[in-house]
Records
---
Amino acid sequence: MSSVAAKKGLGASILEYLTTVDHKKIAHLYLGTGGFFFLLGGIEALFIRIQLMKPNNNFVSEQLFNEIMTMHGTTMIFLAAMPILFAFMNAVVPLQIGARDVAFPFLNALGFWLFFFGGLFLNLSWFLGGAPDAGWTSYASLSLRSEGHGIDFYTLGLQISGFGTLISGINFLATIINMRAPGMSFMRMPLFTWTTFVASALILLAFPPLTIGIFLLMFDRLFSSNFFDVTMGGNTIIWEHFFWIFGHPEVYILVLPAFGIFSEIIPTFSRKRLFGYSSMVFATVLIGFLGFMVWAHHMFTTGLGNVANAIFAIATMAIAVPTGIKIFNWLLTMWGGSIKITVPMLYSLGFIPSFVIGGVTGVMQAVAPLDYQLHDTYFIVAHFHYVIIGGVVFAILAATHFYWPKIFGTKLSEKLGYVTFTLFFIGFHCTFFVQHFLGLMGMPRRVATYLPGQGLELGNLISSIGALLMAVAVITLLINIIMTSIRNKKVGADPWEDGRTMEWAIASPPPYYNFKQTPLVRGLDTWWIEKMEGKKELTPAEPLGNIHMPNNSILPLFIAFGLFVAAFGAMYNPLNSVGDGKSWGVPLLIIGLAITFGSMLIRSLRDDFGYHIHKEDLLEDDKGGKVG
Amino acid sequence: MKFWRLSFLFLLLTLVLSGCGEPFLSTLKPAGEVAETQLTLLFISTSIMIFVIAVVVIIYTIVLIRFRRKKGEENKIPKQVEGSHKLEIIWTVIPILLILSLSVPTVAATFKLGDVKDMDIVDKEGNREALVVNVRANLYWWEFEYPDLGIVTSQDLIVPTDEKIYFNLKASDVKHSFWVPAAGGKMDTNTDNENKFYLVFDKEKADEAGNLFYGKCAELCGPSHAYMDFKVKAVSRDEFNQWATAMQKNKEEVQPTSDLAKQGQEVFQENNCIACHAVTANDARPETARTAPNLADFGNRTRIAGILEHNEENLKAWIQNPEKFKPGNQMYKEANLSEEELDALAEYLMGLKVQE
């Protein structure tokens, strides 16, 4: 039913969140859960750096180190970065296109719960025999041999959350294609919507190879197949291909929305429209396309041959061109503008040099024969942290400040934000810059420790100190969030004063139906156009009328939960390679699948027409100032 | 502001750390033509990239100095500029040109470093001219077979300087990667296929590095991935021939001389070590049977288990409790040998020398 009640008890709130299909509440769920996993991944990073602070350290055992290292990467990419980006996509994209929700609200909720249960399943490994220990890439020969169920938690957990990601990708594609307000042609969409669109297309095409690869590994480990067993005619290199055909587009799935966020923030705080909008759109699409053409640059030392290496080297270098176009367009956006250095702008300014450093080391790695030295060393670790932290994490931190008012109705402290940024920026460079040199000096990656007398001590110590700084920075951010929530000072629709796109035209947070009347889009940067003409509201495209809203539902949670149960059944089935199969394995698998398909059947058979908000209530809302 | 202090720090760091690292381990101190080619590529690409970074930083700095919102201009709306075709073309074409120029040495070096056809050149008698080593990576040790010389050894790879050494690379259990950073890039050892590449060890650089280069496993292979080191002894051709001849002569086991060593040999046989560890270099068993490092010339090895200093104390500690040093190793977790047996074993093993 509708959720207009002004006062809610805790129980009612919890039930609301368990059953919500509202994109704004789902954004809260993604932000909170993703944020939690970000902290978990950060602790794992801290443990890595403590262990590597000095040679021959024994802070953690070698086996535990491999588990921590694997979980750090897997958690950060799948359970932190992607979900948090989904949080912002959910919170912002429907508002930016003038829609009342995404195309499939029920599926939107399902996407979240699949991520939730997948992430939960993966992390239960810590308590049930050990986490996966073959790296986030889980190469086939090693992962087949891994003792215990760690790798099974990896395959099953990622399979479940991967379904969620795929569903969400399809949802955003349908939303952006079908639900744009009148007047919003593709070339009038804000850049964050464009990057969400392209990233969603990447998700649609890149996740199936991962799904396939993981299914093959799952069947090898749990049901005695031999896809990757060389002695039985299988092949391990095919895992690398499947994984990287997914894995390379994956990093563009991460970075394109990050680029989109900066494309919103930089024009806002330069008071100037995005320079070269059509080039930016073109570059985004080109990056997405080229992202599928370069996967074997992760396999230069695998032995694919000179021709393959040469081709993939050139293709990889090509991606630098559209990325460079973007950097210059951002700089020229600021040129001639009136720059205000708020916290989101500070992160954008930190992003530009940091990401460029990461990007150029990427081009260096594209030089295949040079990569023979750099591959699997700390140089690579330095590169990808520069682009992921300098690009994605900075974007997430920027968006957290920038969109906090729109999502929660309050504004994070700017002063504390400056502190967080400064500590984090210094800590980040301190940790990762020196790692370029550690790699060049001969330090391989994924090593649980290193011997003394190789010249690696000082670099590792510096790197670890930076990690401590970043940890302190994150703590200040948490303090900021807590203090802001306690103070609970409400802000208006356009708290940054220079909002250009439609989300800044409605209340913070928006009413649960977003727009009373679907807005009319008169051009790019729709809200800016209205503001420059002195208008206080968006131009409506329709008269006030009844609004059709979807009902809440508990079924998405059950569909995901069923898969969670089934995963345990699959893992402990009598055929598994660990050899601890139980008789209840297959029955549990069937029960879990029954819960999932049963819930889906209920959804299909029961007609759910949603409900309507009546025109009269909308007019009352106006007078009473109620928020959803 | 803080950006300048940071960039000065980086510059300092770059100067301090460049050309840095140990001559036996660092890619920045190339000890042969393969590593030199790769370092040249590093310099070319870094230079191009520094140029790109400089352009970005200059524009960035000007922007930050000139266009910050000034006091009294709180309500000024700047001119909204759509874009510039000219600029778009410039910053598309110039990067393309830079990349094209980087592509040329890239492709050239790819084919040059991947050219192993000379591996199969034979002389009039049908003998292979080049030196070929079959590398087999295992958990957590390295086997080196010289097929044309009939020698099997492990952990210490002995090669002559100033000539191309060709490698056939494979793994017996999981994927590993064979890497001698000072000499050149790595090549994965797969279980599926055999990879081939070559390295060259320069005589002068080898002398500078004490004739001992560090080798690393460069692909996560398990808990002891970080301990899967090997060493490369790069010596003159003459010295190499001397070693090879001595190894070839080592067809039957050299009988231990002292009583303690004889006792050690008994311990070695009683505990079935001989089932896995050959002690002569002409191990004719098939690969699948060679499940442990060959111990011929063990007395002259540079390390114990690839990582420990080569002395009796470490040897005894390793034999008694290998799991402590290399968790997950495939020998056994713990032995239960008496102090006396350990002394004898150590004496025997240290005495396995093909030459002094």
---
Amino acid sequence: MFGFFDSATQWILGLILLLSSLGVILLRKPVHASLSFLLTLLTLSIYYLQLDAHFISVMQVLVYAGAILVIFMFVIILFQDAYQEIEFTQPKSSKWILAMGFIFLIFGFSMFIYMILDLPSKFSTLSHDYGTVQSLGKALYLDFFIPFEAAILLFLVALIGALYIGKKVKKE
Amino acid sequence: MNIIVTIIISLAMFGIGLIGVLSRRNALVFFLAIELMLNAANLLFVGFSKQWGNQIGLVWVFFILVVAAAEAAVGLAIIINLFRTKKVVDVDQYDSLRG
């Protein structure tokens, strides 16, 4: 399609992604942070559509915005009265930890930049059913059958574990 | 869609998430920053999957989504349980397992 239009869309989406993910960690109230995270997720979904990953784009909205963020909102409702007091407590020893994080980040960035210097800049040709439900389902059920079943088991264990951990402990 | 821009966006998102985990002390924002890092990894998977025309990357994104959902369930249950016992959401206060 139009090369300029494509890259302009990409930059705009990237800018929205960066600003909203900055909002996740900079906004003070968890409700605002999670709404900013919702904007990140929806923008990521549009970005996936631009990259021809249709199924993943829909799954992103369904799983993240539909399930995870809703659970998250419920937890925030539970915590409603708790987070007023913590806004004034100072974090312990976060300067050293932050410095370590920055060093790690700089290492990571330089390594990745070194790695991407010799990438091919053209996309390889995509098959006509790239990213659709049919082809991904075929890949999941034929090539990745065992990991798929393991994922089901993981879900079951997570469900039971969450129920057990979240259960009210009886006082003796 | 240029792959270099995708990589830069994904790295920046991962860095923002990492800094969020290291600097914010609210357990809920902590959790959101972890999800941000998972999403950055997903973005990289999708970008490279299109770059090489290979669908395996999308399958891995699917598995990361599964892991993220399971992690959300268990992690939020743990946060609720900690909040019930300590009555705070500050992760610096959760030090009863520290020796």
